[in-house]
Amino acid sequence: MDFSAEYKGRAAAIADLFTATFTASEGSNEGVLIGDLARRLMAETPTQDLRVFTAWNGGELAGAILFSRLNYEGDNRTVFVLGPVAVATGQQRQGIGQRLISHGLEELRQEGVGLAVTYGDPGFYGRAGFKVITENDVPAPFPLRHPEGWLGQSLNNAALTPFKGPSRCVQAFNDPAFW
């Protein structure tokens, strides 16, 4: 398994992976929604606010994860949101997603990012060290339909203290449909 942070020139293949994976698991509407989200994140998000990590197995794209910056008004701590995550349907249940998430979190840790958050299945993300957090401590950009899926992980071993001010996500995520 080879990991890469290079996505320029690979963005279409990465977005297609998200479309195919989410179409297979959640239906075509979700596949289009998440594929378009991935395309927009890679095309519209400033480089300093986006991290893309891919996993390659024998030269074939096996998985991809995206992290985008989450800013808090009045708080200078560095936070990135993990999402979306996709593993090629033929390569699922082999630990690729977990290894890719661990790789991405370690890269962010090395950069000095303090907190990673995600919004999803606590069982899946819990295996990568994420724990349930509250919107009182870490406000989400929009009201959450499933607050039990709001998860976080300290990347610098600092205790989680409440963030100050409302949060603002990158433009591609600035839609209540994702929250």
Account of the protein in words:
Helix content is 30%, strand content 29%. The chain has 179 residues and is an alpha+beta fold. Strands 1, 2, 3, 4, 5, 6, 7 and 8 form an eight-stranded mixed sheet that branches. The longest helix is centred in the N-terminal third of the chain and has 17 residues, at 28-44. It is globular. The N and C termini lie far apart (32 Å). The mean pLDDT is 96.
Task: List strands and helices in order, with pairings.
Blueprint: E1 2-4, H1 11-26, H2 28-44, E2 50-57, E3 60-72, E4 75-87, H3 96-111, E5 115-119, H4 122-126, E6 131-132, E7 150-154, E8 167-169
Parallel strand pairs: 4-5
Antiparallel strand pairs: 1-2, 2-3, 3-4, 3-8, 5-7, 6-7
Helix pairs in contact: 1-2
Low-pLDDT segments: none
Strands, count: 8
Question: What's the number of helices?
Answer: 4
Structural class: alpha+beta
Terminal-residue CA separation: 32 Å
Question: Helical amount among residues, as a percent range?
Answer: 25-40%
* Most strands sheet: 8 strands, mixed
- What is the 3D form? globular
Backbone CA Rg: 15 Å
Strand content: 25-35%
Secondary-structure element pattern, one letter each:
EHHEEEHEHEEE
Q: Give the rounded overall mean pLDDT.
A: 96
